[in-house]
Design brief:
The chain is of the alpha/beta class. The protein folds into 2 domains: 2-324, ABC transporter type 1, transmembrane domain (ABC transporter transmembrane region fold); 346-580, P-loop containing nucleotide triphosphate hydrolases (Rossmann fold). Helix content is 64%, strand content 10%. It has 20 helices and 10 strands. The protein has helices spanning 2-22, 26-56, 63-112, 115-120, 123-165, 167-173, 176-214, 216-221, 225-251, 253-277, 283-324, 385-391, 415-420, 436-440, 449-458, 462-467, 485-499, 515-529, 564-570, 573-580; strands at 346-354, 360-369, 374-378, 400-405, 408-409, 422-425, 503-507, 533-537, 549-554, 557-562. The strands form 2 sheets. Strands 6-7-8-3-9-10 form a 6-stranded mixed beta sheet, sandwiched between helices. A 4-stranded antiparallel beta sheet has the order 2-1-4-5, with helices on one face. Strand 7 (503-507), helix 18 and strand 8 form a beta-alpha-beta unit. It is elongated. The model is unreliable at 1-8 (pLDDT under 50).
Length: 584
């Protein structure tokens, strides 16, 4: 039952690879096939030329006859060389095109994936799907198709030579081929399993390295170099063991093939010698037959390698197709409309939401943020503040209740139009390994340098940018590692300012700033918030005392709401939190 499923799976994967990625290049493959046919025919020609060389040399033929034989040999080798060159170039071009197409499709698909997908799958693992797995697919497609097609044509020509020389001897020696094919097929089942496991472990290794390198500051600070090396050692040892098992299985085909080849050649020699003694054939004809047989057995031996590559490629294709077959749950409705509103008030109505673990993050939460007003969300860690921020751009969808903007429910809007009306600044500053100019203009790449500089000035970032050697053309490094925490945060705030969206989502936007920078940025944010609908998640309560309304959340529920003064007078949760921060 298992073998049958594996066979069906292999057929499905090969069919999908051909239909999706090879079919568009069918013309190029046909041209390459013509050159493969020429190469295969020349191999058969070489085997056939053994007979006149052995039988006719030394028998007093004219010099022109001998030169003619030599010229034919040179011509065969030249044709073989040029044919090999062209089919190799064409097939490698097709293979590389397939890699590019798959990588682009996979990346495009990943960009459409839900945010929860990225929370569930390590980045290193996804990178391996885009690089390592796709590369293995390319090798399988290019090498397997070339070797299989050319090898098959070569076998046809060589078998033709063998039958031309002696059909009885051909039939007697053919027992080798089906036995070898059966053995290789059995090995392929094991190779597929080891290849899949090896690729999975390699993905884990890449993910582990990504985590270690991004967290290197903490690795060194906590003296965890040895522990991290042991983790990497364990993963690489697992990859090593799987690879060795794969090599053992793959290499098994060679001794089996050699043994069968030896038996077949012995049969050919014994029978051929008897035929020569009886005068039924010549020494040249026998050597021509043996040469054709040996040359024919070479493609059969390569089949083991091709099958190993094919199984690795199918295992990689399976992993890639797993991603491509995952459809995002958060998509536009068929009748979704663009967001068009004169007032951008946000209304959260009886919302219930929980993450995958099932624990409620929000329980019957209702909040109204009037157009142009600022509402702050406060509360202990895990109260549901950032969850609300994530629901408004539809990073997640609510399980119950609804969220509206300007009276239009989020799920009735196109996501592109919804998100174009939002600007987000979070406590995790997402800076890319690019220039400061490009990072500020992210989301509005057409912005002029004047607008970028104005946004940086409003975010109080222009001062430190001017002191950098390359100014706005300074490359900030991965995740902005070349900047301080406060500098990174001000670049992120400048990005939000440049976007000039009517709705602002500020998730701990000033958490990484020192007191002096925080005061400056708060003044800039206050100017920016004027006339815009703003939702602020704040840990430092001193930064939101001027909010039009403060919502206090605890364990996913709204427990208090009011202005700063009203909540202090209430003497409840907010008053305690404010007092703990030295506000009272």
């Amino acid at each position: 039952m298992h073998a049958k499923k594996a066979s069906q799976s292999s057929y499905y994967l090969i069919k999908r690879l051909f239909a999706g990625y090879l079919k568009p290049h069918l013309g190029g493959f046909i041209v390459a096939s013509i050159f493969m046919a020429v190469g295969a025919a020349t191999t058969g020609g070489l085997a056939k030329m053994i007979e006149p060389i052995v039988n006719e040399l030394g028998k007093g033929h004219s010099e022109s006859y001998i030169l003619g034989l030599g010229a034919i040999i040179v011509g065969i080798f030249a044709a073989r060389g040029f044919a090999t060159y062209w089919h190799t170039v064409i097939m490698n071009k097709i293979g590389q095109r397939i890699v590019t197409d798959v990588q682009q499709e996979l990346h495009r698909h990943l960009l459409r994936a839900d945010l929860s997908f990225f929370h569930s799958n390590p980045s290193g693992e996804l990178i391996m799907r885009l690089t390592n797995d796709v590369g293995i697919m390319r090798q399988a497609v290019g090498e397997c198709m070339t070797s299989s097609f050319k090898g098959g044509l070569t076998l046809i020509f060589l078998i033709g030579v063998m039958f031309y020389q002696d059909w009885r001897l051909s039939l007697a020696s053919f027992f080798v081929f089906p036995l070898s094919a059966l053995f290789v097929a059995q090995l392929g089942k094991h190779m597929r399993r080891y290849s899949r496991k090896s690729q999975e472990e390699t993905g884990k290794f890449a993910s582990l390295l990504s985590q270690i390198f991004l967290g290197m500051r903490h690795v060194k600070a906590y003296g965890m170099e040895k522990a991290e090396h042991e983790r990497v050692q364990g993963t690489t040892e697992a990859v090593f063991k799987l690879a060795v098992k794969g090599y053992h299985v793959s290499a098994l085909a060679n001794p089996m093939a050699e043994m069968l080849s030896g038996i077949a050649i012995m049969t050919v020699i014994l029978y051929g010698n008897w035929q020569i003694e009886q005068g039924h054939t010549t020494t040249g004809a026998l050597l021509s037959f043996i040469t054709a047989f040996v040359l024919a057995f070479d493609p059969m031996k390569r089949t083991a390698k091709v099958n190993s590559q094919l199984q690795s490629g199918l295992a990689a294709a399976e992993r890639v197709f797993q991603i491509l077959d995952m459809e995002p749950k958060i998509v536009n409705k068929p009748d979704a409309v663009p967001l068009q509103a004169s007032r951008y008030d946000v209304s959260i109505e009886n919302v219930v939401f929980h993450y995958i673990n099932g624990k409620p993050a929000l329980q019957d939460v209702s909040i109204t943020v009037p157009h142009g007003k600022t509402v702050a969300l406060v509360g202990p860690s895990g109260a549901g503040k950032s969850t609300i921020i994530n629901l408004i751009p539809r990073f997640y969808d609510v399980q119950q209740g609804r969220i509206t903007i300007g009276g239009m429910e989020l799920r009735d809007l196109t996501m592109q139009s919804l998100r174009s009306h939002l600007a987000l600044v979070s406590q995790e500053t997402a800076l890319f390994d690019d220039t400061i100019r490009a990072n500020i203009a992210y989301g509005r790449p057409e912005a002029s340098l004047e607008d970028i500089e104005k946004a940086a000035e409003d975010a109080f970032a222009d001062g430190f940018i001017a002191e950098l050697p390359a100014g706005y053309d300074t490359v900030v490094g991965e995740c902005g590692v070349k900047l301080s925490g406060g500098q990174r945060q001000r670049i992120a705030i400048a990005r939000a300012m440049l976007r000039n969206a009517p709705i602002l989502l500020l998730d701990e936007a000033t958490s990484a700033l020192d007191n002096e920078s925080e005061r400056a940025v708060q003044a800039a944010l206050k100017r920016l918030q004027k006339g815009r609908t703003t939702i602020v998640v704040a840990h430092r309560l001193s930064t939101i005392v001027d909010a039009d309304q403060i919502i206090v959340l605890d364990q996913g529920k709204v427990v208090e709401k009011g202005t700063h003064d009203e909540l202090l007078a209430l003497g409840g949760v907010y008053a305690k939190l404010y007092g703990m921060q030295g506000g009272m």
